Amino acid sequence: MLYYLFTWLHTEFGIPGAGVFQYISFRAAAAVITSLIISIVYGKRIIDYLRRKQIGESVRDLGLNGQKEKEGTPTMGGLIILGAILIPTLLFAKLDNIYVIIMIFSTIWLGLIGFLDDYIKVFKHDKKGLSGKFKVVGQVTLGIVVGAMMYFHPDISIKEKQDVERYAMSHNLQNDRTYDKAKSVFSAQAEQSTKTTIPFVKNNEFDYAYLVKWIGDDFRDWAWIIFIPIVIFIVTAISNGANLTDGIDGLATGTSAVIGATLAILAWVSGNIIFANYLDIMYIPNSGELTIFISAFVGATVGFLWYNTYPAQIFMGDTGSLAIGGIIAVFAVLIRKELLIPILCGVFIMENLSVVMQVFYFKLTKRKYGEGRRIFLMAPLHHHYQKKGFAEPKIVQRFMIISIVLAVVTVITLKLR
Question: What is the pTM of this model?
Answer without folding.
Answer: 0.91
